[in-house]
Structure formats: structure tokens, C-alpha cells
Amino acid sequence: METNLRSRLVAGVLLATSLATSLPAKAQLACTVKTQTQLLATFSDLSGPGTITPRSIRDFVCSTVALIAEPGQSSINFSPQLVAASFVTNSAQVLSQWNSSASGGTTGAVSFNGKFYTTITGAPNQYLWSVLGAVNYQGTGGTGQHVGVYGQGVRSTFSAGGASNNPQIWGAVAEAHDFTGQPTSVTNAMLGMEIDNVGNADDDARIRSGLTVAINKANPAGVDFGSDGGITIVANAGAYVYKLLAAGGNFKEAGIDLRNAGKLSGHTIWLRDVSDISWNNLATATTGWSVANSRLETYGATYFNDTMTINNGIKFVGIGGQVTHSANVGLDTLPANPAGFFTINVQGADVKFPFYNP
């Protein structure tokens, strides 16, 4: 079976380094070392795709593995010295293409196109990273969009039988797994993913973002695309978080900004029953929905001691014994048959205030 790769990759790698003249004995069993001239002759087409046989690939890999560099350098160095004067769409410096037509297999088992394993058995102070993807722009202009790491999951077809006969797709997964069974006071911090946005100067054009989640319609002429969540945080059974969503640091305009959120239906903020909102750091003043009394109630060890006005229509002054003027019974006569009552719970007792239709 032949595999089509771009010969410029191979030639670039070979031009970037000097080939070793020998391999370890174990590797010599499978490899035949060729000189740089011989390999360049094998991959002589530098203008476009070339045809590479398994034997040629073996010679290329073996010759590259033979480039055992000085300590601290790469054993395999893909550093092409060729400077492209033009671009080839979907070209790659290194291509690993896996076309699988297999069916079945063991549920839960994983097969990989590529693996990078880093096992640490010492006590290093240096930071060890298994994979680094980076784009370093030092250009002179242009309007390109450059990405350090891009993960993509594509669903091109579907099978009959519904969800039970179709796979789940992820574009990317980042996971941190602690097998020690110990608390972090014993081990140390662990993050599933960290996203940094680092620089200087103001975002006066308002085009920076630490995390952007874009929900898009693939075909403008197709039906609208729906997604149950934009950002979904789930603590599954047997797990919990202290704060599902926590934000810290300085902000200038708003902690939460929903001005550009277009409401099609539903609720802007939706709380479950027996939820409450704390209005201060010590949570001594909270408001929540009482399921038992079917009403919104304010709780706390202390009550609001200042004036609170809602839409200039309802005004509470000094709830909790802070009223500075008292009224006597009989000072005013109220008409009969009120339209209803406002009920306010003051220090554990419900007080009803009648209201009348205008």
C-alpha cells in the first residue's frame, strides 16, 4: 500500500540535520541507513505531492531516528529549512492519517492515532510538559487567523436506529485525574484546564476574551441550529464543587452582562425551589422563594435597617423595629372590602396590609 505525503516535508527534515552513520543494534534489524544524497534522491519532487512506499517511509524514519543529538536536544527534529513562497491548502509538515473501516471492538477501549506519554519518576523542579503547540507570529502583516492547537470533531453522516446506533463526538477533551484518593492538602492543586490571556495595554477595541464559546449555524440556508447549553457545568453523583461558577478579579462594567443576549423564550435567570440570593459577604441578608408559603421571603440574622424602595411603589422603612414614628389605632378609617393584602413577615410574624383598587 502506498501513502501520499508531501515530499517537501522529508526534504526539509533532511536538510535541517546531519544523518548519523550508525544506529543502535536493535534498530539495525529493521533499518537500512541511507546517506542524505540517497534519501534526497528518493524524495526528489519538492514541488508537490510525492509517492512514498512503505520501504521509503521506513528508510526516512530510520534515518531520522538516527539523528541522536546532544543532550537536551531532540532525537527527532522536524525543522524544515525550506521557506515556502506560496501556500498549499490543507498541507502539513507532519501528517498522520488513519482511515478506519473496522466495526465492533470492545466498548470503553480506546485506540489512538498518536500518543505522547510522559512518565515522571523522579522529583524534578523543572516543569515537564508532554505536548506543546504554539504559534509565534513575527510576521509583517496579513489578515490570517493563526491557532496554536486546534481540535475538531466532525459528524459527516448518521446511521439509522437513532442515538443508540450513532456515536458521541467531542472536538476536544482535557482531563486531570487523581488516583491517590487523598485530599489536596496532602497532594496539591489540580486543574482540568487552564486558559490564560496575557498581555499589556487596554482592550479599547473590545476584541479580547479569555474564553469564547461560539454556537453557529453551519448552513445559512438550513434550519436553525440548537444547543441545550452554551456552557454547562455538571457535578455528577458522588462528586461536588464548592462553587459551580466563581469569578474573581477586577471588572469595570459588569460582573454578568446579558445586554446582548436575545431572549427567544424562557427566563433570563432561573433558580430552583429553595434557592436564595445573599446580598452581603456574611450571608446575613438573603432573599429566597419559600415553597411552604409560596412566596418570596427575606431571611437573615438581622433585617434591612435602611429604606428600600421598589419601583417607587412599595417602600419599607426600618423593618425590624427601626420605625421612628408610631400610629395609634383609630387615627384613620379604612374602607371595607379591600381588594387584597400585602403580607410582610416581620421578625417571624406575618403582618397584612390591605390594598384597594383605584
List keywords for this structure.
little secondary structure, elongated
Architecture overview:
This protein has 358 residues and is low in regular secondary structure. Among the domains are: 1-96, no CATH class; 278-355, no CATH class. Helix content is 9%, strand content 11%. The protein has 4 helices and 9 strands. It starts with a strand and ends with a strand. Mean pLDDT is 74; it is low at 1-37, 39-59, 62-72 and 301-327.
Outline of the structure:
The protein is largely without helices or strands.
SSE topology:
Elements: E1 3-6, H1 7-16, H2 25-28, H3 36-42, E2 49-52, H4 54-65, E3 276-278, E4 286-290, E5 295-299, E6 308-310, E7 314-316, E8 340-346, E9 349-355
Antiparallel strand pairs: 1-2, 3-4, 4-5, 6-7, 8-9
Largest sheet: number of strands, sense, barrel closure: 3 strands, antiparallel
Low-confidence stretches: 1-37, 39-59, 62-72, 301-327
State the separation between the terminal residues, measured CA to CA: 89 Å
Q: Structural class, judged by helices and strands?
A: little secondary structure
Query: Order of strands across the biggest sheet?
Result: 3-4-5
Count all strands and give the number.
9
